[in-house]
Design brief:
This protein is α+β, with helices and mostly antiparallel strands and about 140 residues long. Helix 2 runs antiparallel to helix 4. Pfam families: GrpE (PF01025).
Length: about 140
């Protein structure tokens, strides 16, 4: 009889330990799932942000390539374009989307699209952006000497 009781106590302890382990696994799973959902929510606007960035790129290119006579004759048109660029930049900043600085080549942030000799200077070809610290579009750069 005592042998049976000891056996049953051992089984009960084993079942209790298994239950505790499974309970801990469930709690860990819930925490992991909550982190995944939070990550999905944080980056849900990434696609929209990339589309806005493409529009911003086009506006900046248009402003860079604007002939001088257009700047002089149509300054109110130019002011409107500059305001649109500023508005896009403000919207991006509100969602913690920032432009990647181009100082020194960093393969984690930059994509080298052209190299002239063994370069020590980096020129931006296309702006890159991070969203909440994560690269959503690397900067395209040209490395020149």
């Amino acid at each position: 009889m005592t042998e049976d009781i000891l056996k049953l106590k051992k089984e009960a302890a084993e079942y209790l330990n298994n239950w505790k382990r499974e309970r801990a696994d469930l709690i860990n799973y819930k925490k992991d799932e909550a982190r995944r959902v939070e990550e999905i929510i944080r980056f849900a606007n990434e696609g929209l942000a990339l589309e806005i960035i493409d529009i911003l790129d086009n506006l900046e290119i248009a402003m860079r390539n604007l002939p001088e006579e257009m700047k002089e004759k149509h300054d109110d048109w130019l002011d409107g374009i500059e305001k649109a660029v500023s508005d896009f930049q403000r919207v991006l900043a509100r969602y913690d989307i920032s432009r990647i600085p181009v100082e020194k080549f960093d393969p984690a942030l930059h994509e080298a699209v052209h190299t002239e000799r063994d370069g020590d200077r980096v020129e931006e070809v296309r702006a890159g952006y991070t969203m909440q610290g994560r690269v959503i579009r690397p900067s395209r750069v040209k490395i020149v000497k």
